[in-house]
Amino acid sequence: MLKYFIQKFATNGALEQQRTGIGRLAGALGFLSNALLFLGKFTIGVAAGSVSIMADAINSLTDTVSSILTLVGFQIASKPADNEHPYGHERFEYISGFVISLVITFVGCQFLLSSFKKILAPQHVRLSIFVYVILIVSILIKIWQSRMYYTLGKKIQSTTLKASGQDALNDVLMTTAVLISAVIEGLTNWRVDGVIGFLIACYILYSGISMVRAFINELMGSRPTQEDLSAMETRLNAYPEIYGYHDLLVHNYGPQKTFASVHIEVDDRWSLNQAHEVINKIEKDFSKSLAVQLVCHLDPVALRDDVYQEKRAIVTSIVTGVAEGLTMHDFRVNGPEQMSFDVVVPKECPLTDEELTQTIHFKIQQRLGHQKIEITFDHTYLLQ
């Protein structure tokens, strides 16, 4: 059934249009199913006087609102670039997800309070076979909904849809807990409704706060996944003609708008045209295979200069021996007694930049005599 909807509503047009179509499809299916769940749970919650069922119903209402925000988010995110937003509007998908997480957190706070009051003043819950039927159907719908969100989210690599899939899976657990509480109260007459409602509210609150943090990271610019970094390293390692690479930076303006820059080390005897041909090939490779818009910066290296290579080897051994994890790149000999280089400092390094500078300067002077040294410290931890 899901494949039918994808083929009918989300497979026409360019890649961005397909992404928008799938996002709208997920929002529409989510809205219809969540609205149906809210009406069913709210009806039996009011009839039974159960705070846990009402909490579950309001959670379905927030999911309905979330589905509307998903629809709006994908619609706005699909807008093309303009003068004010030259990189497009895809980050609005993160904004809609952030708003969804705030709504979930607010609902969790409200039901935490109402459930606590129910614990202090417990009331009898009026149960019927209709209550059990609705709860079981709700669980089955939420299992389908979770699978739907995960399938569509994976298809278009959407963190918003994947988060909705996790939220739907959480709802399966929540509704199952409500069903168990109803069974316990029906069999034993123990009034556990308030306690179950309190636990559900805590879970809603936890999920909301976790999602808030996740989307804040997306908006602020989070570190690429190790899988993405490994894929980029694999592509760069596929070019034996380059001497090395460093200073990889990655940032994005949405799920399909990823940009990166990297320094490529090449033989300094290459002509400008030869170097341009290689980096142009690498940039096109990244665009085609990884959908990443890469910009390469050239670093010429004196591979055949014995003096350069000797000094580079000495400075490398000094830097790596000062503290564990230190690495060096961009080594330059700017004159008989002048050199410059970059040092990559891992976050667990116990020494400050000033302490590293003093130590490295002292050790180089011991080995090579008086040198005018310029050190740039790199605290970007994408590639070590």
From TrEMBL:
Domain Cation efflux protein cytoplasmic residues, every copy: 224-300
SUPFAM superfamilies cross-referenced by the UniProt entry: Cation efflux protein cytoplasmic domain-like (SSF160240), Cation efflux protein transmembrane domain-like (SSF161111)
InterPro entries from the UniProt entry: Cation_efflux, Cation_efflux_CTD, Cation_efflux_CTD_sf, Cation_efflux_TM, Cation_efflux_TMD_sf, CDF_Transporter
Keyword set, alphabetical order: Membrane, Transmembrane, Transmembrane helix, Transport
Residue ranges of the TM segments: 21-44, 94-113, 125-144, 195-216
Primary location group: membrane
Locations listed in the record: Membrane
Pfam families found in the cross-reference section: Cation_efflux, ZT_dimer
Annotated Gene3D superfamilies: Cation efflux protein transmembrane domain, Cation efflux protein, cytoplasmic domain
Record-annotated Cation efflux protein transmembrane domain positions: 29-220
Bilayer disposition of the protein: Multi-pass membrane protein
Family affiliation: Belongs to the cation diffusion facilitator (CDF) transporter (TC 2.A.4) family.
Protein name per Swiss-Prot or TrEMBL: Cation diffusion facilitator family transporter
Species of provenance: Enterococcus diestrammenae
